[in-house]
Amino acid sequence: MPLSPAVETVSIALAERSYPILIASGLLGDAAVWDDLPAAGAALIVTNVTVAPLYAARLQAALAGRYRQVHTVVLPDGEAFKTWETLNRIFDELLGRGCDRRTVLFALGGGVVGDMTGFAAASFMRGVPFVQVPTTLLAQVDSSVGGKTAINHPLGKNMIGAFYQPLKVVCDLQTLQSLPARELSAGLAEVIKYGPIADMAFLDWIEAHLPALRACEPAALAHAVRRSCEIKASVVGQDERETGLRAILNFGHTFGHAIEAGMGYGQWLHGEAVGCGMVMATRLSQALGLVDAAFADRLVRLVAAAGLPVVGPVLPAPQGGPAADNAERYLALMRVDKKAQDGDIRFVLIDGPGRAVVRSAPDALVRQVIDACCR
C-alpha cells in the first residue's frame, strides 16, 4: 500500500543504515506507514504515563494487523526518570514477555522515551530493530533523528548510551496539538538552533512565523519540522558518530546540559536549558569577537519571544559538597561534557551568522559570560 501524497519524506543517508523520516498529520493510524517493517511475532510500544492515554491505543490498533502480539510498557514521565532503573523496566517487559531478536520496539513519546527505547533496542540481545514515533516538537525536530540513544548519570547528561539508528522516524504532526505551551516552547529551542549554525534564511523564516508556530498552526509546524530534519539529516549523513561536523548540532547544549545536571534533571526542560544555553554560547561568541552585538541581541530576542528563559540560574552546590562559586560550578559540570578533551571544555560557537565552530575558550572569559548571563 503506497503512502499518501501528503506525506513528506526526508532521508537519512547512512548506507545500509539509511532510513526515512515521514512527516504528515494522521500517520499513527495510516496502515501504509507500517507496511514495510520487518516481520516479527511481537512488538513492544514504549511510552509514558502522559502519552499513553492519548496515543497508545491508536498505535496498538495500527500495529495489530502486523504482529501477533503488541505489548505496551508505560514508563513514568520526565527527565528525572531517564535512568538505569527505568531502562530496566523495558528489559523486564521484553524478557518477561519472551521477546526475541526479531521483536520490534516502538518509541512513542518525547525525547526521554525515544532515547531510552533506542538504548534498550541497541542493548537487548545485542540489538533489535526499533522505530521512533516522536510526539513532541523537540523529539520530531531533533532527538528522534540521528541515532543518539542514552540515559543520564547524576554527573552528566546522556553520558551512558550508544549510536543506534532506527528503522524509520514517524512524525505525526497531529500529536503536536496536544502539547502544553511550555513543551512547545522547549521544542522551539531545537528549531531555532538550526538557523545560527547552518541556515540564516531559516532563522529569518522562524522570526517571521514565530506567532504561528506558538499557535500550533499546522502549515508552520510542518515546515519547521521538515526543514529542521533536512538540516540534521545532512549533518548526520556526513558525520554519524560525531567525530567532527555533527558536534555543531550541540549549539547551546554545553551550557544547557550543565543547567540540567546542576539544577537536577527535570527542574528545567531540556529545551529550556538549551534555549538559555544558546544565549550564553552566543554571548561567548560575541566576547571572542566571532559575532557582533547586533547578532547576539537578535538571537536573545528570538529565544525570549519563543517563551524560553534567557537568564541562567544560579546552580546549587552538589549534594553534600561545599558551596561553590556559580561560574566554577558551571565550569566543573561542563568539563564532563562529551566534547571535552583532557578536561578542556569545547564549546559550539557561532563563527559568523549561519556558521558554527567547535573550540575552547579561556576560563576567565567563560566566567565573565556566565556571571553576566546568570541572576
How would you explain this protein's 3D organization?
By secondary structure, the chain is α/β, with parallel strands linked by helices. The chain has two domains: 171 residues, Rossmann fold; 171 residues, Dehydroquinate synthase-like - alpha domain (Dehydroquinate synthase-like, alpha domain), CATH 1.20.1090.10. The chain is built from 14 helices and eleven strands. The strands form four sheets. It has a four-stranded parallel sheet with strand order 4-3-5-6, with helices on both faces. Helix 10 crosses helix 13. The longest helix is centred in the middle third of the chain and has 21 residues. The radius of gyration is 20 Å and the shape is globular. It starts with 7 loop residues before the first strand and ends with a helix. The mean pLDDT is 95.
Unreliable residue stretches = none
Helix content range of the residues, please?
Answer: 40-55%
Question: What's the CATH topology name of the largest domain?
Answer: Rossmann fold
Using the alpha-carbon principal axes, give the shape: globular
Which CATH first-tier class of the largest domain would you pick?
Answer: Alpha Beta
Got a strand count? Answer: 11
User: First CA to last CA: what distance?
Assistant: 56 Å
Number of continuous helical runs = 14
CATH architecture of the largest domain: 3-Layer(aba) Sandwich
Number of domains: 2
Helix and strand sequence: EEHEHEHEHEHEEEHHHHHHHHEEH
Please outline the major beta sheet.
Answer: 4 strands, parallel
CA-atom Rg in angstroms? 20 Å
The amount of beta strand, in percent, is: 15-25%
Mean pLDDT: 95
Structural class by SSE content? alpha/beta
Kindly report the spatial arrangement of strands forming the biggest sheet: 4-3-5-6
